[in-house]
Structures are given as C-alpha cells and as structure tokens.
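Regression test attached.
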Amino acid sequence: DAGYETIRVEQRGRVGWIFLDRPEALNALNTQSMRDVVAAAEAFDVDEGVGAIVVTGSEKAFAAGADIKEMEQKSGLDMMLTDHFGAWARFAAVRTPVIAAVSGYALGGGCELALMCDVILASDRAKFGQPEVQLGVIPGMGGTQRLVRALGYYKAAELVLTGRMIDASEAERAGLVSRIVPAAELLDEAEKVAQTIADKPLPALYAAKAALDVALESTLAEGVRFERQAFAALFDTADQKEGMAAFREKRAPSFMHR
Ligand code: CO8
C-alpha cells in the first residue's frame, strides 16, 4: 500500500478507496494518519482514472477523534510550530468529490474529517459528536466553522458546547448526513454513489465541487458570479458537446474525461 501505515487504499474502477485502519485506537487520527490520508487523497486527485474517492473506517468506528495520547503532552508552541493539523487543509482542497461512509463513532477530528467530505453516508449505527470541551480543548480541524454552516448556529453550538453524541437519525434531521443506510449495506451503497459520480465527466465534477465550496465561503453575489464563470468555461469542453449531443440523439454519452 505505497508505504501507508495507518490506512489501506484500493482502486476499484474509477473509485479510489481509503480505509482508515488503526483498529487498536478506533481509527484515532495521529500525525501519520494525517500524512497517509492526505497523500492518498492527493494521489487519487491527480489521477485522471479516478472520479470519486470514498473514505471509510470500520463498523465500530469511522474515527474516534484526533489521537489524544499523541497530543496530551504538547505545548501550544509545539502545536503552532508543527502546525499539528495543518495538512488536513489539503484534504479539504482535493478537487475530486469525496464520500465519507460512516459507521460507528465519528467523534472530534473524525466528525470533522467527515465534514470535509462532499457526501456523508451514515450507517444506522453511526454516532457523531464533538467531545473536545470535555478534554479541555475545542474542535481543531474546522468543526466549529463547518458545523455552523451545515447545521445552523443553535444545533452546532449545542453539540460543541455540551460534547453530546448524536445518533444517525438525529444527525440526518440536523442536516449533518446526506442519507442513512442500514449498516450491512453501507459499503455497497457508498460504492454505488461513488460510481454514479465517477461516471460523470471530470471537468464538470471539478467545477461543481468548486462552486459548491464557494457557497460555504463567500457572499451570494460572489458565489453566483463564480458559478456563472465556471458554467461558461464548461462549454469549451468536449464532454459538454458529447453530453448534449447524446441527449439530442437519445443515446448514452461517451465522455472523454472519465
Ligand atoms: N485518541 C487515542 N486513542 C483513542 C481515542 C482517541 N481519540 N479514542 C479511542 N482510543 C483508544 C482507547 O484509548 C482504547 O485504547 P486502549 O485499549 O489502549 O486503552 C481503544 O482506542 C479502544 O477505545 P475504548 O476502550 O475507549 O472503546 P469504548 O468502546 O469503550 O469507547 C469511545 C469508545 C466512546 C469512542 C471512547 O473511546 C472515547 O470516548 N474516545 C475518545 C473520543 C474523543 O474524545 N474524541 C475527541 C478527540 S479530541 C479531537 O478530536 C480534537 C480535534 C482536533 C483536530 C483533529 C485533527 C485530526
């Protein structure tokens, strides 16, 4: 597995899979996990043969947070100088759509990792939470920001301030997950969603993800401007010509970039 220590990776068709694999620590994310996950995601991202990435853990744990034992003795200066969680920003910057397939615990950094993905499929056994206040800290990988944007202030604030864990159905009602799937079907369903995405032309996927990201980061006017430019640019792609010709000719499209 290309020297990875904390994950397994696999490519099936046009889908890149990242399996978090530290069962002894419920997939807690340490520095090596960050290096491995970021490197694997970036390698899939630059591979034109990959149109979607799935990140998943085990049935018991997607990831139970940042590795508390690794962080415990660090000083504020250590955290700043080593930019302890900084590389996760590169995971969020991956252009390829990423699906989180979550079963079991998605806590702290684990919940935040899911929040960096574009689709969150939750098994009916998934549990989400931001328990950091109980450890004397706060979410450090974007949780306070992304939760407020995804759930609204009051739901996000209750979760971050109490550290309360919520089950899959509460998470779905809150808008934290795209959809709930029976635990036994989670990986099959993730594969289906990923294949459906990966079948689409890459230029359109990249543009769509970039535009969705802008929605979280900008004003409505800026976002609509970005969308219009990205929309126009796609008319210079062979895949746009093919997609629209196929529609007119009532046949399946045969895209160049996929
Ligand atoms: N870090 C390190 N080790 C962990 C972690 C963790 N977050 N979670 C579980 N483990 C270890 C346990 O220590 C235990 O190891 P050992 O057998 O050597 O004692 C093993 O995994 C199994 O865990 P448990 O025995 O505790 O399993 P249970 O089924 O009894 O309990 C729980 C499961 C409820 C999930 C429990 O393990 C737990 O509460 N874990 C900690 C959850 C937590 O507080 N997470 C937040 C961490 S802080 C954080 O994420 C900050 C984010 C900042 C940025 C993130 C960047 C990645």
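Expected vs. actual: identical. The chain has a mean pLDDT of 97.
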